[in-house]
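Researcher: Let's do a round of design. I'm pasting the C-alpha coordinates now; please hold your answer until I've finished.
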Protein backbone atom coordinates (compact mmCIF):
# COMPACT_ATOMS: atom_id res chain seq x y z
CA UNK A 1 0.00 0.00 0.00
CA UNK A 2 1.34 3.42 -0.96
CA UNK A 3 0.27 5.99 1.64
CA UNK A 4 1.35 8.80 -0.67
CA UNK A 5 -1.81 8.19 -2.72
CA UNK A 6 -3.51 10.41 -0.15
CA UNK A 7 -1.36 13.30 -1.40
CA UNK A 8 -3.39 13.19 -4.61
CA UNK A 9 -6.51 14.32 -2.77
CA UNK A 10 -7.21 18.00 -3.30
CA UNK A 11 -6.49 19.60 0.07
CA UNK A 12 -6.45 23.24 0.90
CA UNK A 13 -4.08 24.68 3.51
CA UNK A 14 -5.21 26.87 6.35
CA UNK A 15 -4.15 28.67 9.50
CA UNK A 16 -6.58 27.65 12.24
CA UNK A 17 -6.75 30.15 15.11
CA UNK A 18 -8.47 30.31 18.46
CA UNK A 19 -8.08 31.95 21.85
CA UNK A 20 -8.73 31.10 25.48
CA UNK A 21 -8.01 32.72 28.82
CA UNK A 22 -6.29 35.70 27.19
CA UNK A 23 -3.91 33.68 24.99
CA UNK A 24 -4.06 33.48 21.19
CA UNK A 25 -2.73 30.60 19.12
CA UNK A 26 -2.84 29.10 15.65
CA UNK A 27 -1.63 26.12 13.65
CA UNK A 28 -1.53 24.82 10.10
CA UNK A 29 -4.22 22.33 9.03
CA UNK A 30 -5.31 20.81 5.73
CA UNK A 31 -8.70 19.57 6.88
CA UNK A 32 -11.37 22.24 6.54
CA UNK A 33 -14.49 21.98 4.41
CA UNK A 34 -18.06 23.20 4.12
CA UNK A 35 -20.56 20.57 5.28
CA UNK A 36 -23.92 22.34 4.87
CA UNK A 37 -25.06 25.49 3.07
CA UNK A 38 -28.32 26.22 4.88
CA UNK A 39 -27.26 27.11 7.45
CA UNK A 40 -23.61 27.47 6.50
CA UNK A 41 -21.50 25.01 8.47
CA UNK A 42 -17.83 24.11 8.31
CA UNK A 43 -15.89 21.17 9.69
CA UNK A 44 -12.24 21.11 10.74
CA UNK A 45 -10.17 18.21 12.04
CA UNK A 46 -7.11 18.73 14.23
CA UNK A 47 -4.62 16.54 16.08
CA UNK A 48 -5.21 16.45 19.83
CA UNK A 49 -1.52 17.22 20.39
CA UNK A 50 -2.02 20.71 18.96
CA UNK A 51 -2.57 23.41 21.57
CA UNK A 52 -5.15 25.02 19.29
CA UNK A 53 -7.33 21.91 19.66
CA UNK A 54 -7.46 22.47 23.43
CA UNK A 55 -8.33 26.14 22.94
CA UNK A 56 -11.21 25.34 20.58
CA UNK A 57 -12.63 22.79 23.01
CA UNK A 58 -12.59 25.38 25.79
CA UNK A 59 -13.65 28.47 23.83
CA UNK A 60 -16.04 26.87 21.33
CA UNK A 61 -14.93 29.12 18.49
CA UNK A 62 -12.27 29.38 15.80
CA UNK A 63 -11.19 31.19 12.65
CA UNK A 64 -9.94 29.56 9.47
CA UNK A 65 -7.63 31.68 7.31
CA UNK A 66 -7.47 30.24 3.80
CA UNK A 67 -3.88 30.35 2.60
CA UNK A 68 -3.08 31.54 -0.90
CA UNK A 69 -0.28 30.70 -3.31
CA UNK A 70 1.46 33.88 -2.15
CA UNK A 71 1.98 32.50 1.35
CA UNK A 72 5.70 32.03 1.94
CA UNK A 73 7.38 29.10 3.66
CA UNK A 74 8.04 31.40 6.63
CA UNK A 75 4.31 31.55 7.32
CA UNK A 76 4.00 27.75 7.29
CA UNK A 77 7.09 27.51 9.47
CA UNK A 78 5.78 30.06 11.96
CA UNK A 79 2.42 28.38 12.53
CA UNK A 80 3.34 24.79 11.74
CA UNK A 81 6.86 24.14 13.01
CA UNK A 82 6.59 25.34 16.62
CA UNK A 83 4.20 24.65 19.45
CA UNK A 84 1.88 27.21 21.00
CA UNK A 85 2.50 25.43 24.30
CA UNK A 86 6.05 26.79 24.22
CA UNK A 87 5.87 30.07 22.28
CA UNK A 88 3.43 32.92 21.74
CA UNK A 89 2.98 32.79 17.97
CA UNK A 90 1.32 36.20 17.86
CA UNK A 91 3.79 38.03 20.10
CA UNK A 92 5.77 39.56 17.21
CA UNK A 93 3.47 38.67 14.34
CA UNK A 94 1.87 41.69 12.64
CA UNK A 95 0.22 40.17 9.54
CA UNK A 96 -3.09 39.65 11.31
CA UNK A 97 -6.25 41.36 12.50
CA UNK A 98 -9.05 40.47 14.86
CA UNK A 99 -12.44 39.57 13.43
CA UNK A 100 -15.76 40.36 15.08
CA UNK A 101 -15.51 37.22 17.25
CA UNK A 102 -12.30 38.54 18.82
CA UNK A 103 -10.00 35.99 17.19
CA UNK A 104 -7.06 36.67 14.88
CA UNK A 105 -7.10 35.95 11.16
CA UNK A 106 -4.15 36.14 8.78
CA UNK A 107 -3.96 39.18 6.46
CA UNK A 108 -0.90 38.39 4.28
CA UNK A 109 -0.63 35.10 2.43
CA UNK A 110 -4.35 34.42 2.92
CA UNK A 111 -7.23 35.18 0.55
CA UNK A 112 -10.21 34.81 2.91
CA UNK A 113 -11.19 33.94 6.45
CA UNK A 114 -14.12 32.21 8.10
CA UNK A 115 -15.28 32.67 11.70
CA UNK A 116 -17.23 29.80 13.24
CA UNK A 117 -18.86 28.67 16.48
CA UNK A 118 -18.67 24.99 17.44
CA UNK A 119 -21.94 23.02 17.41
CA UNK A 120 -20.66 19.42 17.54
CA UNK A 121 -17.46 17.67 18.56
CA UNK A 122 -16.46 14.22 17.34
CA UNK A 123 -13.65 12.22 18.95
CA UNK A 124 -11.60 10.48 16.24
CA UNK A 125 -8.94 8.96 18.45
CA UNK A 126 -5.77 10.91 17.64
CA UNK A 127 -7.81 13.82 16.22
CA UNK A 128 -10.91 15.84 17.03
CA UNK A 129 -13.43 16.95 14.44
CA UNK A 130 -15.33 20.15 15.11
CA UNK A 131 -18.51 20.95 13.21
CA UNK A 132 -19.37 24.61 13.51
CA UNK A 133 -21.82 27.17 12.23
CA UNK A 134 -20.32 30.05 10.27
CA UNK A 135 -20.86 33.41 11.95
CA UNK A 136 -18.81 35.63 9.62
CA UNK A 137 -16.56 35.35 6.56
CA UNK A 138 -14.79 37.75 4.25
CA UNK A 139 -12.73 37.62 1.03
CA UNK A 140 -9.40 39.41 1.42
CA UNK A 141 -8.14 39.25 -2.19
CA UNK A 142 -8.41 37.28 -5.42
CA UNK A 143 -5.17 35.30 -5.06
CA UNK A 144 -5.47 31.59 -5.88
CA UNK A 145 -5.84 29.26 -2.90
CA UNK A 146 -2.83 27.12 -2.02
CA UNK A 147 -3.43 23.40 -2.39
CA UNK A 148 -1.46 20.71 -0.64
CA UNK A 149 0.06 19.72 -4.00
CA UNK A 150 1.12 23.34 -4.63
CA UNK A 151 2.80 23.45 -1.24
CA UNK A 152 4.70 20.22 -1.92
CA UNK A 153 5.87 21.38 -5.35
CA UNK A 154 6.46 25.10 -4.90
CA UNK A 155 6.83 26.05 -1.23
CA UNK A 156 8.29 23.24 0.87
CA UNK A 157 12.10 23.29 0.68
CA UNK A 158 13.60 20.41 -1.25
CA UNK A 159 16.30 18.23 0.28
CA UNK A 160 18.97 16.40 -1.68
CA UNK A 161 20.13 13.04 -0.39
CA UNK A 162 23.85 12.96 0.45
CA UNK A 163 25.93 10.24 -1.17
CA UNK A 164 27.94 9.13 1.85
CA UNK A 165 26.33 6.64 4.23
CA UNK A 166 27.23 7.56 7.80
CA UNK A 167 23.99 7.39 9.76
CA UNK A 168 20.31 6.63 9.28
CA UNK A 169 17.87 9.54 9.25
CA UNK A 170 14.11 9.44 8.91
CA UNK A 171 12.66 12.57 7.30
CA UNK A 172 9.06 13.72 7.48
CA UNK A 173 7.80 14.13 3.92
CA UNK A 174 5.31 16.73 5.12
CA UNK A 175 7.47 19.29 6.91
CA UNK A 176 11.05 18.03 6.60
CA UNK A 177 11.65 17.26 10.29
CA UNK A 178 14.37 14.62 10.77
CA UNK A 179 14.66 11.80 13.30
CA UNK A 180 18.04 10.07 13.74
CA UNK A 181 18.05 6.37 14.63
CA UNK A 182 18.37 3.02 12.93
CA UNK A 183 14.64 2.38 13.31
CA UNK A 184 11.62 4.67 13.43
CA UNK A 185 8.99 3.60 15.99
CA UNK A 186 5.71 2.58 14.35
CA UNK A 187 3.77 4.89 16.67
CA UNK A 188 6.09 7.86 16.15
CA UNK A 189 4.40 11.24 15.62
CA UNK A 190 6.23 14.17 14.03
CA UNK A 191 6.70 16.78 16.79
CA UNK A 192 6.28 19.60 14.30
CA UNK A 193 3.41 18.76 11.95
CA UNK A 194 1.92 15.86 13.98
CA UNK A 195 1.93 13.40 11.06
CA UNK A 196 2.51 9.68 11.75
CA UNK A 197 5.48 7.42 11.03
CA UNK A 198 3.94 6.41 7.70
CA UNK A 199 4.75 9.91 6.40
CA UNK A 200 8.49 9.52 7.07
CA UNK A 201 11.05 8.37 4.54
CA UNK A 202 14.43 6.78 5.24
CA UNK A 203 17.55 8.58 4.00
CA UNK A 204 21.26 7.94 4.52
CA UNK A 205 23.57 10.76 5.57
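Researcher: That's everything. Go ahead.
Model: Designed sequence:
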Amino acid sequence: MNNKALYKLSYGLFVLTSSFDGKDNGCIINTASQVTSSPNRISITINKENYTETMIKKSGKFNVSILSEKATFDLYQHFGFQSGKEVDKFANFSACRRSTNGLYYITHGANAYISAKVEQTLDLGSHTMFIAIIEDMEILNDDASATYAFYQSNIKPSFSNPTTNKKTVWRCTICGYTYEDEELPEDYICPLCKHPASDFEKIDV
